[in-house]
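Narrative of activities, Objective 1.

The group set out to show that a structural description can be obtained from nothing but a protein's sequence at a throughput compatible with the screening campaign. Below is one input-output pair from the validation batch, recorded exactly as produced.
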Amino acid sequence: MATATGTTLHERSADCCSIELSAAVEDYLKEIFAITSLGDSATTSVIAERVGVRPPTVTAMLRRLRQAGLVEQVAWGRVALTSHGKEHACGVIRRHRLLETFLHRVLGVPWDQIHDDAEVLEHHQSDRLEDL
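Output recorded for this entry:
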């Protein structure tokens, strides 16, 4: 369960990984999924640009993700999600889309204004709420 410091709310996720599934970790998994789903290579520089950080920061995170079994190096400078990493990435994307739908249908937020709010909230939605 989440703490005041922002740790994950996703009990199932927390029990299966050797890494805390923080907002940053989830953002990296989601971006790697998005990049590779388009058929592009998930390189340090591409990930850095999409996440908005410098390449050395990406290198450090990729090391952590690799040690946790969430990504694997598929070629020099390129990574891909493992099946475990894809599972978590798809969970984040699902929560994001559920939140966008909720914000639009229930709260009446215009579609062109919901993405940024869903981007923040996706990391703080409980498993219980997601399963409703």
